[in-house]
Amino acid sequence: MVAASRPAPARAAQSIDGPRQRPKEGLFRYIAFGASPRATLALCRCAKIRALFEGRAFVTPEDVKAAAFPVLRHRLVLSYEAEADGLEADSVISRILALVPMP
Known about the structure:
By secondary structure, this protein is mainly alpha-helical. The chain has helices at residues 37-53, 61-72, 80-84, 89-99, and strands spanning 14-15, 18-19, 31-33, 77-78.
């Protein structure tokens, strides 16, 4: 999910068959700066803590989704286009959650 908040580098966007189309290209116009790799660590830790509070020794996709909003909310820097369209960080995070397949 954190990687989905950042555009892929140009060299990673190339595959053997040519350039890949990323389904979230339209989302990047709303994100000026995506979440850093430290956000991945925070998301993992918060999901583990939520699972522990629920009495489980394992993390579920619901734990990760629940932790995504408080972890990513202040780590995404939205673009002026997002502000002009009236989008807040929670709206963008919801779109990222919808794009990233959960197991």
